[in-house]
Specification:
It is a single chain. The protein is mostly helical. It has a single domain, classed as Four Helix Bundle (Hemerythrin (Met), subunit A) (Up-down Bundle), CATH 1.20.120. It is 77% helix and 0% strand. It is globular, with a radius of gyration of 17 Å. The protein starts with 6 loop residues before the first helix and ends with a helix. Bound molecules: fe (ii) ion (FE2).
């Protein structure tokens, strides 16, 4: 009988989608880059926030050296989030847009590869399938709570407007939504 999908399989699928989305820049017109960037941002933030809520707490508990691994991978994700923020703030007309995208692509893809090798593969060995399937369900539920587009104007008032760009604000609102629902 066909089994349910584990959280590992879902994460690998997300990573594939992100790789494909980056590849779209290679063939798309320059005028479409901003739209691709926006949907990429949305996918990446959703993926990362849900991963931090559902996957990394288990990594910390179940993998030898789990705390160190989790901290290393999460700090890579934060770096990518900062890059997203920078690009978003500078806008589509920025002359460094292409260079920033190249940097973002390298950072995200290296991170995804490191995550697959150091986190997902060991997790698949350390945790039984039934639990990984349950985590897969949690992952879907959490993902469905995500806002669909980065909010262009939140938050407006100090100090939020200084601390948080749209990307960070999106991640923040999403974390709040998940906390309320749990
Ligand atoms: Fe990931």
């Amino acid at each position: 009988m066909a089994g349910k999908t584990t959280v590992i399989e879902k994460l690998l699928e997300d990573h594939q989608e992100v790789r494909q989305m980056f590849a779209r820049f290679d063939t798309a017109d320059r005028s479409d880059w901003w739209d691709i960037f926006q949907s990429l941002t949305n996918d990446l933030v959703r993926h990362e926030v849900v991963e931090e809520e559902i996957v990394y707490p288990v990594v910390r508990k179940e993998l030898p050296d789990g705390d160190r691994l989790a901290n290393a991978r999460i700090s890579e994700q934060s770096e990518a989030e900062e890059l997203l923020s920078t690009i978003e703030k500078k806008g589509a007309g920025d002359r460094d847009f292409a260079a920033h995208l190249t940097k973002l692509r390298a950072a995200v893809l290296e991170h995804a590869q490191a995550e697959e090798r150091t986190v997902l593969a060991p997790l698949a060995r350390a945790v039984d399938r039934e639990r990984l399937e349950k985590m897969g369900e949690q992952y879907d539920r959490a993902k469905s709570m995500a806002p669909t587009h980065p909010h262009p104007h939140a938050p407006d008032t100090p100090p939020g407007n200084v601390m948080l760009g749209p990307v960070a604000a999106l991640a923040d609102r999403f974390r709040d939504a998940m906390r309320k629902a749990s």
